[in-house]
């Protein structure tokens, strides 16, 4: 990342005091976790206080271009955005763009502004854009990482694991965590394809003498979910039905192997942060998957992932720590490290 796009008038906070960070999003978990994950990674490197801010636009103004939106158009349910302004503003999602481009003026250039994902608008107006490398975004203020920022670390999943130990610890090895996505603009999971994947997974688990830990995403079609549950329910293990606490961190902690569908960049990159073998399950392509192909090529080159071939042969690699790498870059750009 070059430095021409970074506003050097930003007043960096002293390393002797606590850094204040605002995490700003529209509140959707998948979006928020990117900004929050980056903020938590910064907090692990330097003393910091994180405040989460949810913003929403009034329905009448929501679809306006970002350039025309003003704070007066925010819904009353939005969290207040007033001084004192934070040292570090980390935002994600289209809804935050009209605010991210103005907060420097509001704070008299005291706030360092980071936008995650490709903003697709006014890229040069943020101090830093932390973007997935597979998006192909370039610029002096762009910092590319493999995948997107996230909250998963080995320490975090280890802390969460005891809550699920009674259910998972008795399961035979190898324990196979299976993370199933669903329909998106680029991929589909039909009932027939889901049945085929389920049969391949069942054969691999039975051949290994292991057990299954299966979870679905909100995008998994009901028909695909039903057929997979029907074909895999007789295996030793746990198929999470969506009730109770989400066991994802427990699954990742106790897994020997991880299987993820290729439709989710987040799932693959998060799984690769564990250092455990990540097998990629194919989906039905609806359009060119160039961006996803670039991501999976990157993960494969790092030794983290391989296409699922029906076997559970393990391998090792250095766990990905891309969120931490981005956090160091943020602090370096702020002049605090």
What features would you describe in this structure?
The structure is a single chain. The protein has 337 residues and is α/β, with parallel strands linked by helices. The chain has 11 helices and 14 strands. The protein is 31% helix and 19% strand. It has a 6-stranded parallel sheet with strand order 2-1-3-4-5-6, covered by helices on one side. A 6-stranded parallel sheet has the order 10-9-7-11-12-14, sandwiched between helices. Strands 8-13 form a two-stranded antiparallel ribbon. The two termini are 17 Å apart.
Overall geometric form? globular
Low-confidence stretches: 2-12
Distance between the termini: 17 Å
How would you state the average pLDDT, rounded?
92
How would you concisely characterize the structure shown here?
31% of the residues lie in helices and 19% in strands. With 337 residues, it is α/β, with parallel strands linked by helices.
Key descriptive features of the protein:
alpha/beta, 11 helices, 14 strands, 31% helix, 6-stranded parallel beta sheet, disordered N terminus
Q: How do the strands and helices of this protein lay out in sequence?
A:
Layout: E1 19-25, H1 29-45, E2 48-54, E3 88-92, H2 97-100, H3 103-106, E4 112-116, E5 128-132, E6 142-145, H4 154-160, H5 165-168, E7 175-180, E8 187-188, H6 191-208, E9 211-216, H7 222-232, E10 237-239, H8 248-254, E11 257-261, H9 265-272, E12 278-281, E13 284-285, H10 290-301, E14 305-307, H11 322-334
Parallel strand pairs: 1-2, 1-3, 3-4, 4-5, 5-6, 7-9, 7-11, 9-10, 11-12, 12-14
Antiparallel strand pairs: 8-13
């Amino acid at each position: 990342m070059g430095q021409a796009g970074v506003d050097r008038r930003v007043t960096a906070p002293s390393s002797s005091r606590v850094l204040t960070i605002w995490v700003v999003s529209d509140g959707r978990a998948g979006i928020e976790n990117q900004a929050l994950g980056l903020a938590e990674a910064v907090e692990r490197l330097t003393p910091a206080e994180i405040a989460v801010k949810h913003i929403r636009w009034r329905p009448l103004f929501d679809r306006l271009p970002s350039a025309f939106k003003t704070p007066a158009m925010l819904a009353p349910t939005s969290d207040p955005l007033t001084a004192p302004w934070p040292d570090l503003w980390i935002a994600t999602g289209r809804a935050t763009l009209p605010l991210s481009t103005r907060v420097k003026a509001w704070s008299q250039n005291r706030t360092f502004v980071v936008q995650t994902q490709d903003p697709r608008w006014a890229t040069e107006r943020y101090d830093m854009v932390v973007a997935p490398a597979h998006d192909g975004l370039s610029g002096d203020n762009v910092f590319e990482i493999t995948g997107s920022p996230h909250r998963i670390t080995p320490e975090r999943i280890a802390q969460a694991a005891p809550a699920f130990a009674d259910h998972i610890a008795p399961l035979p090895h190898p324990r196979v965590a299976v993370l199933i996505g669903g329909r998106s603009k680029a991929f589909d999971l039909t009932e027939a394809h889901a049945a085929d994947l389920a049969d391949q997974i069942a054969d691999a688990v039975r051949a290994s003498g292991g057990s299954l830990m299966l979870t679905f995403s909100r995008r998994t079609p009901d028909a695909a979910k039903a057929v997979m549950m029907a074909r895999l329910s007789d295996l030793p293990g746990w198929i999470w039905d969506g009730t109770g606490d989400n066991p994802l961190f427990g699954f990742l902690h106790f897994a020997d192997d991880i299987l993820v569908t290729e439709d989710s960049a987040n799932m693959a990159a998060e799984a690769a942060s564990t250092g455990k073998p990540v097998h990629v399950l194919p989906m039905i392509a609806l359009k060119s998957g160039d961006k996803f192909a670039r991501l999976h090529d990157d993960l494969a080159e790092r030794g983290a992932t391989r296409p699922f071939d029906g076997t559970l042969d393990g391998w090792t690699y250095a766990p990905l720590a891309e969120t931490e790498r981005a956090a160091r870059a943020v602090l370096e750009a702020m002049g605090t490290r």
